[in-house]
Amino acid sequence: MDRKILLIYTGGTIGMKENPDTLLLEPFDFNQILQEVPELRKFGFQIDSLSFDPVIDSSDARPEFWVSLAEIIRDRYDDYCGFVILHGTDTMAYSASALSFMLENLEKPVIFTGSQLPIGMLRTDGKENLIDSLELAAARDKDGHPYVSEVCIYFETELFRGNRTTKYSAENFSAFCSPNYPSLAQVGTHIKYNTQALYHPAEWGKPLLLHTRLDPRVAVLKLFPGITETFVRAVLSTEGLRAVVLETFGSGNAPSAPWFLKVLSEFTASGGIVVNITQCQTGTVDMGTYANGDTLRQAGVVCGKDMTTEAAVTKLFVLLGQYSDNKTVGIKMEIGVSGEISKK
Ligand code: ASP
Questions:
Q1: Do 225 and 184 lie in a common domain?
Q2: Domain count, the chain
Q3: Which residue, among 148, 135, 156, has the nearest Cα to 184 in the 3D structure?
Q4: 113-150, pLDDT tens digit by residue?
Q5: Is residue 94 part of a domain?
Q6: Of 194, 210, 226, which closes a domain?
């Protein structure tokens, strides 16, 4: 068999089934996946599986977990034509974003999926998500290249770019959206690939590069009317803090109060990075639109454009791990490195 896919189980709802005695949901032995999903035998390619031990609820995901995932992919990169990662939905968008920045020169599909109902339940969405993800990970175009050569999230008929995605529903089967970037493929009776939106390497055959030094000295600060100086100062004076993702209003606006700009300016003057992203679901930060946004620029704030919070946070982790100099990181935060920012 020329095509082999590696299925990596990390935890989350998808891998649960009901204990018939206690009626409680418990993780099932992933080595028994074929018993739970016998349909997997029908694929015309080999599927190997590997389970984290212990498996985690994705609320417990940490940078070390992303490093383990990235290393699994690196170590088996030449043996498989694609990777499907079963993951809890709660922080899936963070993990997919992190891996998109950690795996440089990726040319193979890395598809995260999960489910809202456990795979062991009758009405589960997990089987369809798993089967479709495997199909997408194995698909090749007429030249033999993978259709998908980037980190994605597949959920409920849609394939999204991982670092553009966010979880928006705690109960719908359609739990993820990609507010500022079109879906990469839609699965119906046929699979429709959006070839314009999919990433295609300019040249094939570059070696995979791994970035596994992550620096989590990052904070997220969401603005709200009435936010106080004491609170903002407390966040920015967190010991060792190197960067703040500032979730602003609309197209990148913030209070015009002199204390606010002073606190931000003090932080940036001492070398800290402040990245401006919007609280809005769609659209972009444009710090030249309103006077309030323009003063942020003068306070040394960097424009995060239309990055999601998940992308901004994990990109900072990776860049701060790579560069000790905050200035370089600030400059790179404004430039798309893995398709996370829309080109104008
Ligand atoms: N709490 C679970 C997790 O994220 C929820 C899920 O899998 O959907 O691991």
A1: no
A2: 2
A3: 148
A4: 999 999 888 899 999 999 999 999 999 999 999 999 99
A5: yes
A6: 210
Domain holding 58, by residue range, is 4-210
Q: Whose CA is nearest to atom 4 of ligand 1?
A: 88
We report the CATH number of the domain holding residue 266 as 3.40.50.40
pLDDT category, 173, cuts 50, 70, 90?
very high
| Strand pairing report for 209-210 and 218-222 | unpaired
Report which of 32, 29, 70 is spatially closest to residue 213, judged by C-alpha positions.
70
Is residue 271's pLDDT more than 90?
yes
Q: Are 283 and 255 contacting, i.e. CB atoms less than 8 angstroms apart? A: no
Confidence band, pLDDT 50/70/90 cuts, at residue 105: very high
DSSP, res 251: T
**Final residue of a domain: which of 210, 226, 249?**
210
Cα 259 to averaged position of ligand 1 atoms, centre (Å): 40
Instruction: Report, as an integer, the average pLDDT of 203-222.
Output: 97
**Catalytic site residues?**
13
37 CA → ligand 1 middle, Å:
20
| Span from the CA of 275 to the centroid of ligand 1 (angstroms) | 28
Nearest to 289 by CA among 339, 326, 254, 335: 254
Is residue 339 included in any domain, yes or no? no
Asked if residue 189 and residue 240 are part of one domain, the reply reads: no
- Do both 285 and 151 map to the same domain? no
Whole-number average pLDDT of the chain: 95
Please name the residue whose Cα sits nearest to atom 1 of ligand 1.
Answer: 57
First-to-final CA distance of the chain: 43
Same structural domain, 300 and 159? no
Whether residue 47 is found in the same domain as residue 190:
yes
Residue 171 Cβ contacting ligand 1 at under 6 Å? no
Tell the residue nearest (CA) to atom 3 of ligand 1: 88
The number of C-alpha atoms within 13 Å of 141 and in the hemisphere containing its C-beta is: 14
293 within ligand 1 shell (Cβ under 6 A): no
